[in-house]
């Protein structure tokens, strides 16, 4: 079983593949409901549309066919879906990859359920509400707001763009699809590579066992390069259980395949659920054997020092905003990143499309996964953020490309964390909650400055002169001891916290912009490619030559609306030769070069 055998173009969840599915992307009926009267007027039973929208693009985008940038707090979607009697022999699961912010769903006029959270996926079993061999009406109401207590990331909450905040995203903005499953099926498998033990831990969740007297078993088949390494069958007696599978193999020429940017090898795995000996559910997935660890102030990948050359990626496109315009566009972005000599991305203020993470897994690009921020601190913001973050960590746990979780950025949503004990305790709670779900990845708390508890010390500095960067960071102890400020007079640690020999990464710098009438970048804008390259080379090398810094993250991949400091334009045209950027990124460090 080769990974390519189970690849399905545009499949919304490529880490957990079933053969039988149906995309509901495309044309949907649409209507604005600014006064929130739709439920009273019977919209859940059906409505007369005022627009046709192209899902999964939000109404604010050109790709949606509407391009209405004004904020509308309540919007409705409607689609007729034909379901055959044969399809209804299975359970029908309606999946939403992302809807911002609250989604309420009706099928044939019956309320199915609702979900809150603009960046996490969710689903409903709609089997009981469907009629066979007829058109079935799916209605979705999306509720959004300008509240800063909801995780919104870079979405503006004013009527206009300002600073680094852009046009909001309302409603469905990732794929909608149907999946057809047996009443008892594999709901989730959490896969944890145990690198040093040459094994992998599988945590299984099975849905539907309570409704049957049948006997179930699950067969787990692990293979690589079409060679089966292990095949194990075990009885299923409860909904959640765990097993560990060794990857040791009897062939003399066998060796473990490891995942890294230099060699992104993946193991294929299939899960076959059997009812009384007959296969009733088959899921295809994959995992990477890789280990992230922190020792003696270094970040280790597969027990070797790993120097991270990251680039900030906000994941915006010119005509489709947060939604990738196509799978090809995702692949092109990742290949451009690699062509510039970066080995990873910090996905900034956005939980990315699962297809993006899939291609990072396949092509070998590491990912720092960052939460969308709230901008207020109160009980409601804490509740909303925590609930959504738990879902996100669980949903994306299996991607080997994700090597760092990043719940907070630059004190957004925790504006007084420097000396406010309640906000500090919130960050500690999120750190430990994340670790309780994922003990194997580092967690960065408050990327940029004013760290509380954090596995990595990350610093943001948009100094435009390389010699000043070198001078500022020449004394490590002055930085980590809060004696030297940076980035608008910020300090490395919040009050009451101190350096614990964490690895140090300059996780935002650069942001160089060419001269532009209205757009902005960091520092003075440059007038020529030569001036750009000179400045880019100087600041990049200044960071690389700091012997105690183990990586950096340049701002940023592409321009985003009014922010014009990308290495690519908003429509993904290079501003300078990508080979020059790569040469600078790969140039040797004076203190030694670590792959």
Automatic annotation (TrEMBL):
Q: Which Pfam families match?
A: Glyco_hydro_2, Glyco_hydro_2_C, Glyco_hydro_2_N
* One annotated GO molecular function: hydrolase activity
Q: What is this protein called?
A: Glycoside hydrolase family 2 protein
Keyword RNA-binding appears in the UniProt entry: no
Q: Which residues form the Glycoside hydrolase family 2 catalytic domain?
A: 292-583
Q: Which family does it belong to?
A: Belongs to the glycosyl hydrolase 2 family.
Q: Indicate whether DNA damage appears among the record's keywords.
A: no
Q: Domain Glycosyl hydrolases family 2 sugar binding, which positions?
A: 23-142
Q: Which UniProt keywords apply?
A: Glycosidase, Hydrolase
Source species: Paenibacillus yanchengensis
Q: Please list the residue ranges annotated as the Glycoside hydrolase family 2 immunoglobulin-like beta-sandwich domain.
A: 184-290
Q: Which PANTHER family match?
A: BETA-GALACTOSIDASE, HYDROLASE
